[in-house]
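Class, look over these structure tokens:
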Amino acid sequence: MMNCRGLHCPGCHRSGPAGPITALLALLALSAAARAVARLLPLLLHILIATAITTATAAVLITAVVLTARRPARPARQPVQRLPGGTIADTASHRQRLPTSPAPQVLPAPAAVLDAAPPPAPQRASGRTPPP
């Protein structure tokens, strides 16, 4: 027979009854493993979540420590000292005055050109000025 797998008869494979029994045992082992994995999944998930929280907390703490250690130390604030009233006036009086710019000079009036002809009138049709 074609496609005979030997489930109901010895068949051509000469494997005997071990083939179907092996398949059933493998299916049973797979089912038992699936049940065990189904029982362990919540526990594994809790372990994974706890590990993620611990890792994130450690990363935040390490970052805070590194940033705190690298921050430059600031000197303590000094109290504000008030100067006596005359001090500012005394120091300001010793300043030199900056030189001022000279007064602007008046430019001479433009010289008139005696032999200059007035510009030609534009042509009426085109509105352009004729060439000289």
Summary: The two ends are 117 Å apart (CA to CA). DSSP finds two helices and no strands in the chain.
